[in-house]
Amino acid sequence: MRLNERHLMQLAAVLDAGGVSEGAAMLGLTQPAVSRSLSMLEARVGEPLFVKGRRPLQATPLAAQLAAQGRVIIAASRQASDAVQGFVKGSKGLVRLGGVPFFMDAIISRMIGEFQGREPEIIVQQSYMNLPEVVAALEGDQIDLGIVAMGEVSSGPGFEFTEILHGRNVVACRQAHPLLRKRPIEARDMTTYPWVAPLPGSPLMSDLQMILMSIGMSDLNIRYSGGSLMSVVNFLTETDALAVLPFSVVFALRDSSRITVLPYQIPQPNRALGIMRKAGGARNPASDRLANHVTLAFDSLRHAIKRHEGAVVWGHS
């Protein structure tokens, strides 16, 4: 036997409100419409719904069971309405985010934490990806946003790219590195120390090759590779190794007093960090809200990074 869900909802409302008129008002319906629905439900089940002669209305055992199911339907309907309103406003939902590892760990993850402090009902799923993986994931509708470094090459007509920070790299080392006591630092000085290789697929790998060319070297003494940001920081802290890192990443770790900038100018890539989205199609209001939060956060962060950069006394080769 199939019962009309609306009839069960109306039965629950009538019993909870204590009368047909009151239940109808609760649901925004008229009293005659609700009375007809209850009569139809009673005819459908072939049993009375109310104990005769009782005021306020008293449910029969069968009606009490049906009303319990009606309450479940009412609750689900209200939750669905809340979900729709939350989605449209961008205050509820799921945001799938992919981004370059070091930036995600050092900067973006903290911004996500700040964001969820304000928007606790938005769920963020983060994945580590470089540009090719982000493009493929956006095309396959596997992520909503990508945080990537983009160079001179356009992202293509199928994507939108919003710049949030211009790229700048530095050579990073531990706070007490011997080279920090030398002035000026020369190119050959850096070749006497071990280096950390960037993650495979990272644009920092090509940046390291540019540094090699600028100092007239074909190879470096790579002693560590493939680590996460925390692994690289730990390795630098315990050794005299050097690593190429984005300046913003070193800036984000400044309070830890573990690594710092080696004051030596290196070739800079023509690259910017930004938010990539698929152009056109349905938009996720929650992802738009997160993207706006990250953009505004970088508006403030950009000036702080610039001031910190001005405190570095750059050496010359």
UniProtKB/TrEMBL annotation:
Domain annotation HTH lysR-type: ranges: 3-60
Keywords: DNA-binding, Transcription, Transcription regulation
GO molecular function, one term: DNA binding
Full protein name: LysR family transcriptional regulator
Family according to the record: Belongs to the LysR transcriptional regulatory family.
Superkingdom of the source species: Bacteria
Gene3D superfamilies documented for this protein: 3.40.190.290, Winged helix-like DNA-binding domain superfamily/Winged helix DNA-binding domain
CC terms in the record's Gene Ontology section: cytosol
